[in-house]
Structures are given as structure tokens and as C-alpha cells.
Amino acid sequence: MEITTLFFYFASFLFIVLFKSLIKNFLFPSNGKQLPLPPGSMGYPYIGETFQMYSQDPSLFFANKIKRYGAMFKSHILGCPCVMISSPEAAKFVLNKSQLFKPTFPASKERMLGKQAIFFHQGNYHANLRRLVLRSFMPEAIKSIVPNIESIAQTCLKSWDGNLITTYLEMKTFTFNVALLSIFGKDEILYREDLKRCYYTLEKGYNSMPINLPGTLFHKAMKARKELAQILEQIISTRRCKKQVYNDLLASFMDEKAGLSDEQISDNIIGVIFAARDTTASVLTWIVKYLGENPSVLESVTEEQMSIIKGKQENGEEIGLNWEDTKNMPITSRVIQETLRVASILSFTFREATEDVEYQGYLIPKGWKVLPLFRNIHHSPENFKEPEKFDPSRFEVAPKPNTFMPFGNGVHACPGNELAKLEILVLVHHLTTKYRLVYSTIIIIFDNEFVRITMLM
Ligand code: HEM
């Protein structure tokens, strides 16, 4: 055989091998399992479909994709290849298989909240933290703070009386104070103003460009973060000297058996405030809006709340609310459930595949982001009839399994859900029984809503 023919055969063989491997890597980018990727489009190189998603309502972007590709589809957003999922079963699978899907956040968010905060972890460290947090927020632990929550609610409402308020901002003050109460117990009031000043600067920079140069919002937020950690260190060392018995989240974290360093404690305190405040304030703001738009629902809620007061008067009981009263508010509880569904304030969450995962015949490659789309699950007509309609009575019947997950699912599901529901019930009780809401122009600017609140005479 001539040397040129031999070279030709060798070159052709090399070309076929290279071409095959190129095709294989393109279609099956990980370790070459012969499984297809989910349907969908990856958009343009580098930018993917980021502009398509941000130039419209993200829910609409997802809804159109679901219509076209089904409940599981691929995309490429903010520099990351991802798989979006909108079927209840797939969402449950991803959120419960924690060894296959780990939580994932941008590095700048981790730096700002604190790298040791519960959300960013898996395994033993996460399980230990979760046990401590759950212990402080389970019904048995929060039962005793109903009167304190009530007192915070009454103070807030009094300060709004007769004024035109921006609902979301005021609700954030209420939920911030309740979060501090659950963390620092009776000491909450001592630290309120200092912590508030720093935390409010931190939040302003949370969603800013992560450029750490003097003058930028990010830089100011990082400075406030440092100051917050210093204040928390001070609080921890003061408590150690006092040697009093406390029964709050900080005490749980400081328990020697918990084995946490001061830095781990302060990262997690900042984390819990972050998780507790805006979420609950947002739900309260939507409740005020839905009650205003649905007078018959407002009337039923008011009747239910008035009957609690009447019952107490008839039985000669103390007028303040107690835990049992809050368990006797089925109509108001359904209003909360329906608000959580319609507003779906956490539209989706993020996980990252820790290895190549096969799901329903598709490959989710290692390193890809996976997004369970809570809002689309809550707004699917397959799961909820007339999903856009605000109808609390739909919760008279339990929803289909896994179709309602406002507090997530699996090992990272919200440990603060009982506290959130409790503080909402307490505030709604006082709002509807003692005040009249006069709705002003409702302007939705990042959830802000203006309402005038007047004391009932
Ligand atoms: C209505 C208000 C709230 C909503 C809708 C909500 C929703 C959620 C959701 C969906 C998750 C899971 C996120 C994921 O899997 O990626 C979560 C986690 C979490 N929430 Fe909430 N939450 C609320 C209020 C609270 C409150 C009041 C607290 C604390 C007192 C709290 C503390 C936490 C913590 C610490 C986590 C992280 C748990 C972990 O990683 O193991 N949340 N929340």
C-alpha cells in the first residue's frame, strides 16, 4: 500500500473518531450516557435566552415554554445551562434527592448573607442547623410568644392609624420585629434599632451589581454586613456573661451541644432574618390587596375574627389571642393558603445536579441548574381549576399531592412556616376587627401598595 493511501485511511479514521466524539459531546455533554437532553432551546451562544426571559414577564416565558415543550425543558439563563421543571412529581423528585441536587446561589449572595448560612449547605452540618432551627420554630416553641407577636402587631397598627402607608414597607417592619423576637426573645427590643439600621443597608445592596468599590451599593452592603456581624458578636458575648436561661433561636444556636462557632451563629442569624422578613411581608401585602378586591371574602374573615372576640367575652376569657384561637380561624387560614398559591412569592428555586441524572428518559447533566417552577405548578389548570381566580374556598378540599408547595419540599423546606402563618393570622385578626382599610390608588411597584388605615370607632 502506498504511503499516501495509508495516510488517507489514517486521516479518515481520525476524522470519523473526532467527529463522533464532537457530536456526542454536543448532544450528551457529560460522561456520554446515551440519553437525550430534555427538549427546549439554548438560545444564543453565551447569553442563551436571558434577554427573552427578562424582556417579558418570566411567568409568561415559562408558560410559553411549557406549552411548547412540556413540563420539563432546557434553557440557558444568566450564563448557566438549566432544566426547568413544572410537574409536581418532578419538583418533588429534585427537592427530595438531596444527594443528586444541591442548593446553589451566586457567590456574591453567599458572601453577603454569610457562607455558613443554612441555605448553602448539605449533609451533617445542614442537618444539625436544621434541627436547631426547627426546634425553635415548631408549634410547641412558638405557642408562648403569641402575646408578644400580638403586642408587635398592635404597635405597628397604631402607628399606621389614619395615615397613608406603603403596605409592603410597613409589613416589613412588622415581620422584621417578629423575626427578632423569635431570635432574641425578650432582648429583641434592645437590639432592634442597631440591627435594623445595618440590615436595611444590607438589603439595599443585595440585588445590586456585585462590584465591591467605595460608593457602590454593594460596597455599602458589605460594610453593613460586617457591622451586623460585630453587633451579633457583642450580643453573643453579653449573653455568655449573663448566664441567664433563654428559650429562643440564639439560645438554641449557642447551646454547647450545637457545636457552632460565633461566625456560624451570626451567619445563620442573618440568614434567618433574610428568610423570614420579606417573604412574610410580601404575603401580608398581597392579603391586604386581595381582601380589598374581594369584599365578600373580607366580610367572612371579619365575621370569623369578630366571633373569636365575642366567644371570649361570652366565656369571660382574657381578651388577648392565644395559640388555640389561632387554630380556630379556618376561613382566614384558607385566605392565607389561596394568597400563597396565587401570589406564589417564591416563583421558583435553584438546585444544581451533582452528577449526571437520568429522569424520565432524559439526561440532566452534572453541573446544570435545575429550577422547580412553583408558580407554574400553582397556576396550572390541571392542578387548580380557574387558577387565576382568587378563591379561598378551593382549599375546603385538600389539593392534589405535591401541587401546593409554597414552603418548598424536602430537606430544605421552610422550617419557619408555622411562625409565618401565626404572625399573619395575628395581624389579620387585629386589622379586620379594629380597623377599616381605605384603599388608595393601588400602585404595584415591586409589591408596594398604598392603603389608609383608620381605627374603627
Ligand atoms: C410566608 C412566608 C414564607 C415563605 C413563603 C417561605 C418559603 C420558603 C421556601 C419555599 C423555602 C425553601 C427554599 C428552597 O428549597 O430552595 C424556605 C426555606 C427557608 N425558610 Fe422560609 N418562607 C417563609 C417564611 C419564613 C420564616 C418566617 C422563617 C424563619 C422564621 C423562614 C426560614 C427559612 C429558612 C431558614 C429556610 C432554609 C431552610 C433550609 O435550607 O434547610 N421562612 N422558605
TrEMBL record:
<dbReference type="InterPro" id="IPR002401">
    <property type="entry name" value="Cyt_P450_E_grp-I"/>
</dbReference>
<keyword id="KW-1133">Transmembrane helix</keyword>
<protein>
    <recommendedName>
        <fullName>(+)-abscisic acid 8'-hydroxylase</fullName>
        <ecNumber>1.14.14.137</ecNumber>
    </recommendedName>
</protein>
<keyword id="KW-0479">Metal-binding</keyword>
<keyword id="KW-0408">Iron</keyword>
<feature type="binding site" description="axial binding residue">
    <location>
        <position position="414"/>
    </location>
    <ligand>
        <name>heme</name>
    </ligand>
</feature>
<dbReference type="GO" id="GO:0020037">
    <property type="term" value="F:heme binding"/>
</dbReference>
<dbReference type="GO" id="GO:0010295">
    <property type="term" value="F:(+)-abscisic acid 8'-hydroxylase activity"/>
</dbReference>
<dbReference type="InterPro" id="IPR017972">
    <property type="entry name" value="Cyt_P450_CS"/>
</dbReference>
<dbReference type="GO" id="GO:0016020">
    <property type="term" value="C:membrane"/>
</dbReference>
<keyword id="KW-0503">Monooxygenase</keyword>
<comment type="similarity">
    <text>Belongs to the cytochrome P450 family.</text>
</comment>
<dbReference type="GO" id="GO:0005506">
    <property type="term" value="F:iron ion binding"/>
</dbReference>
<keyword id="KW-0349">Heme</keyword>
<dbReference type="Pfam" id="PF00067">
    <property type="entry name" value="p450"/>
</dbReference>
<dbReference type="InterPro" id="IPR036396">
    <property type="entry name" value="Cyt_P450_sf"/>
</dbReference>
<comment type="pathway">
    <text>Plant hormone degradation; abscisic acid degradation.</text>
</comment>
<feature type="transmembrane region" description="Helical">
    <location>
        <begin position="6"/>
        <end position="23"/>
    </location>
</feature>
<keyword id="KW-0472">Membrane</keyword>
<dbReference type="InterPro" id="IPR001128">
    <property type="entry name" value="Cyt_P450"/>
</dbReference>
<keyword id="KW-0560">Oxidoreductase</keyword>
<keyword id="KW-0812">Transmembrane</keyword>
